[in-house]
Write a structure and sequence with these properties.
With 151 residues, the protein is an alpha+beta fold.
Length: 151
């Protein structure tokens, strides 16, 4: 028997709908690499519109912009996108949280199960496609919590 592989899916939800996880983190990281949401979305196998809607959904929850336009104000120059400080913080925090939880889960699995376990290889990025509900009762508390943590 091959060693069992630890796999985890971690995300943040509001009213049962994912609003931040690996998919949105992947969009932000790819956008930071190439400066284009179109290219970032294409590299993840989704449309520009789907990627933009996911970013906007998360921005509505937090009340903070994740991306901003730079350049392109003069003729002949192109407009690019970059992460805001909050976008950088959120994607970095997700990666750190995910890595910490996975390491702890692997340690626990090794201690508790009577067989060896191993960590999974990084999977290809993916994006959650469910839309957020129009009313979000936790929006205000999410904004307050993040503001107090990072101010």
């Amino acid at each position: 028997m091959n060693d069992p592989v630890l796999r985890m899916h971690m995300c943040l939800e509001v009213e049962g709908v994912t609003f931040f996880g690996l998919g949105r983190t992947s969009i932000l990281e790819r956008l930071a690499q190439c400066g284009s949401l179109q290219k970032a979305a294409q590299s993840l196998g989704i449309t520009h519109e789907a990627a933009l809607e996911k970013i906007h959904q998360t921005e509505r929850i937090f009340g903070f912009k994740l991306i901003e336009r730079i350049g392109g104000n003069k003729p002949g120059t192109s407009r690019r996108l970059r992460l805001t400080i909050f976008g950088e913080l959120l994607s970095s925090a997700y990666r750190q949280w995910s890595e910490n939880v996975e390491q702890y889960a692997l340690q626990q699995a090794m201690e508790l199960f009577p067989f060896p376990c191993r960590q999974s290889e990084p999977k290809e990025d993916y994006v959650v496609t469910r839309a957020l509900p129009p009313t979000l009762s936790t929006q205000a508390s999410s904004q307050h919590h993040l503001t107090s943590l990072h101010s």
